[in-house]
């Protein structure tokens, strides 16, 4: 049933209400395996709790009915001293369950604390915690358990719990550390950092939920391991054999030669109880894994009526509140004559610091982004495009380091701030409020276990903590409508959406706080051309309507020409050409740009040979002297091997002005640029544009 705007406070966008939690439990219990396991486990727990009240006899009381088989008086028979085995089993369940659950809780808490902390924090903390875990991993478990138990023979259940915890926590910590290491670099975790989420919130909402299947399996496995360990220690006589447990029953059965005398009823019930309990825990584990992983859920569960309250597809009226999301007025249409600069980057240099030295990934890059402009950045893989995007947003992590340069952002009121001088709190306000990023792959950038609405809402929660649930839900619906996603899809998981819808959801995340700048790092990667067209049209529509500026990074030069106002081409970490998109297409001024354009077929006009670019991009650790493109350039001459070309202003035949880093345009001494075609041209710019070759 669709909710009206007044009921949007109850919409499920990530924070589960008590009613929704009830439905989650109902969904979990729909699994026959889970239900069977839980019923068996509940029976054991109830019997352990009420054992003193339902036991027919004192488990230690002797009688004349020695080694009596099961009968109406003694349902499970008696021992050689006439003790009732059923009573011993009931009392033994209490001790075994206390040891199993107690050891599992302490061991799991210790494993989670050490493993996730070590994996996420990294550095010296990771080294020390990993060293501690490794020390316990190499210790022989069984001998250590036997030795510790021998020194604690009369400590009861607490001693056994401590022994199991000491010998069992390291393995779980090691597994969780490895899982955390694989998760902390995932795009959805980077996205959470970019939104300004605090570390503890990222761990609780992004890292921990994605490891719940591992944690649940570790916990349930530890329960049965602890029960088996306690039974083994008791069977060997290393535990307090005066305290009744299933292991104690097996110890006295072995001491009384029950197997040799054929008294099967003395040892079978205890062994069978351990086996059945282990089976029930395995069934519960299967159900939890299916429940936690949305991909494993049965079709139809958790969708439509099983979900709590689908939100209305109609966009609700926005509610005013204290500290609202800022509404940016739509800017006037962008023109190349605009001087309203929103982002100014000067001489930016980003290096990767390693044992072998410093590797420049971005070298002396300068550009200005004007309000309402789409700046396209193109280049082959390894040219520094994504590194530049991460540097602009200050999301780069060690070993990346900004060694030089300036990044200035101009607010709508004209105030200019230095992005590189911002501390963590200032960056938290700058990201997503003023500048947001749409990551390269929506498949990885979206958290697989959270609904789409919850992930959009996370950005709002991080920056608008005072906004209530009703307002957040209304904003989520509004954002989904803006990017063309039905409102009821807020309750969908990422795997339930198509690639195009996932990418639009990422754009909705980027628009959540109406930023002035959106950095899009290859947002159409792995999408077919039809979906690419839809995404690009949506981006252009939103830009014109909301008035933000875009830094668009892609390999697809034809897409960039259609989308961008200005195009910057990067090679070897440098900008080698920057020009208005139309001038770039018709009159490319750098040989590398011509090679890129020559690699794309034309859809109309005469046929031409695709030339491409010979060779491979340079190794940034060993850049060639002079022009980095010289080894691949068909127009290179002697000076290209020794001189690094500056970025020169070039005026094309049609009057358009471009910037190109090529010695072919170097000053001839009279103050005029050289012939754009070069001294030995293979194709002139105009010929490339028309598809002619010579």
Automatic annotation (TrEMBL):
Residues 93-285 form the ABC transmembrane type-1 domain. GO terms for biological process: peptide transport; transmembrane transport. It holds the Pfam family OppC_N. It is found in: Cell membrane; Membrane. This is Dipeptide/oligopeptide/nickel ABC transporter permease/ATP-binding protein. One of its GO terms (molecular function) is ATP binding. Residues 670-694 are annotated as: Disordered. InterPro entries: AAA+_ATPase (IPR003593), ABC_transporter-like_ATP-bd (IPR003439), ABC_transporter-like_CS (IPR017871), MetI-like (IPR000515), MetI-like_sf (IPR035906), Oligopep_ABC_C (IPR013563), OppC_N (IPR025966), P-loop_NTPase (IPR027417). Belongs to the ABC transporter superfamily. Belongs to the binding-protein-dependent transport system permease family. Residues 345-597 form the ABC transporter domain. Its main location: membrane. It is a multi-pass membrane protein. Keywords: ATP-binding, Membrane, Nucleotide-binding, Transmembrane, Transmembrane helix, Transport. One of its GO terms (cellular component) is plasma membrane. It comes from the Bacteria. The chain crosses the membrane at residues 33-54, 97-121, 128-152, 158-176, 213-236, 264-288.
């Amino acid at each position: 049933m669709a909710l009206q705007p007044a009921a949007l406070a109850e919409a499920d966008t990530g924070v589960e209400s008590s009613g929704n939690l009830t439905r989650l439990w109902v969904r979990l219990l729909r699994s026959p395996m889970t239900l069977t396991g839980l019923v068996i486990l509940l029976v054991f727990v109830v019997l352990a709790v009420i054992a003193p009240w339902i036991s027919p006899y004192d488990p230690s009381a002797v009688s004349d009915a020695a080694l009596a088989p099961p009968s109406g008086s003694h349902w499970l028979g008696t021992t050689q001293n006439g003790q009732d085995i059923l009573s011993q089993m009931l009392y033994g369940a209490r001790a075994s369950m206390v040891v199993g659950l107690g050891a599992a809780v302490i061991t799991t808490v210790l494993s989670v604390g050490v493993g996730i902390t070590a994996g996420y924090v990294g550095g010296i903390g990771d080294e020390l915690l990993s060293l501690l875990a490794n020390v316990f991993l190499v210790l022989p478990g069984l001998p250590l358990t036997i030795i510790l138990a021998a020194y604690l023979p009369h400590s009861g259940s607490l001693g056994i719990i401590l022994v199991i915890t000491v010998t069992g926590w390291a393995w779980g910590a090691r597994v969780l550390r490895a899982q955390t290491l694989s998760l902390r670099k995932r795009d959805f975790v980077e996205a959470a950092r970019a939104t300004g989420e605090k570390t503890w919130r990222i761990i609780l909402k992004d890292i921990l939920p994605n490891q719940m299947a591992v944690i649940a399996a570790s916990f349930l496995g530890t329960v049965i391991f602890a029960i088996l360990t306690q039974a083994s220690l008791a069977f060997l006589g290393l535990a307090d054999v005066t305290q009744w447990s299933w292991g104690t029953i097996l110890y006295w059965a072995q001491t009384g030669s029950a197997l040799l005398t054929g008294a099967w009823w003395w040892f079978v019930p205890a062994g069978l109880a351990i086996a059945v309990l282990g089976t029930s825990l395995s069934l519960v584990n299967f159900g939890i894994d299916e429940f936690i992983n949305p991909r494993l859920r049965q079709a139809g569960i958790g969708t439509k009526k099983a979900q709590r309250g689908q939100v209305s597809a109609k966009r609700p009226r926005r509610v005013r509140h204290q500290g609202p999301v800022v509404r940016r007025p739509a800017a006037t249409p962008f023109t190349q004559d605009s001087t309203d600069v929103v982002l100014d980057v000067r001489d930016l240099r980003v290096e990767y610091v390693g044992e072998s030295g410093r590797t420049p990934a971005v070298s002396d890059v300068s550009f200005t982004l004007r309000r309402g402009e789409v700046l396209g950045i193109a280049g082959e893989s390894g040219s520094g495009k994504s590194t530049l995007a991460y540097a602009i947003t200050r999301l780069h992590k060690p070993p990346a380091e900004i060694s030089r340069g300036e990044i200035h952002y101009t607010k709508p009121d004209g105030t200019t701030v230095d992005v590189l001088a911002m501390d963590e709190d200032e960056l938290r306000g700058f990201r997503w409020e003023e500048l947001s990023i749409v990551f390269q792959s929506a498949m990885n950038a979206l958290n697989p276990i959270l609904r789409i609405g919850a992930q959009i809402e996370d950005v709002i929660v991080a920056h608008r903590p005072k906004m209530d649930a009703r307002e957040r839900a209304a904003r989520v619906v509004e954002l989904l409508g803006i990017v063309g996603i039905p409102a009821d899809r807020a309750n969908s998981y990422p795997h339930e959406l198509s690639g195009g819808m996932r990418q639009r959801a990422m754009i909705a995340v980027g628009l959540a706080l109406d930023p002035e700048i959106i950095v899009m790092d290859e947002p159409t990667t792995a999408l077919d051309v039809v979906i690419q067209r839809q995404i690009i049209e949506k981006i252009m529509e939103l830009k014109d309507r909301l008035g933000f500026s875009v830094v668009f990074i892609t390999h697809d030069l034809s897409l960039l020409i259609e989308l961008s106002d200005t195009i910057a081409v990067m090679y070897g970490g440098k900008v080698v050409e920057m020009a208005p998109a139309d001038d770039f297409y018709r009159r490319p001024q750098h040989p590398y740009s011509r090679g890129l354009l020559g690699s794309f077929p034309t859809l109309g006009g005469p046929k031409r040979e695709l030339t491409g670019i010979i060779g491979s991009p340079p190794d940034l650790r060993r850049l060639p002297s002079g022009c980095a493109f010289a080894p691949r350039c068909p127009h290179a001459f002697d000076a290209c091997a020794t001189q690094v070309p500056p970025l020169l202003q070039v005026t094309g035949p049609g009057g358009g002005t471009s910037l190109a880093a090529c010695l072919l345009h170097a000053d001839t001494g009279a103050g005029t640029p050289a012939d754009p075609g070069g001294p030995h041209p293979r194709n002139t710019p105009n010929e490339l544009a028309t598809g002619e070759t010579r």
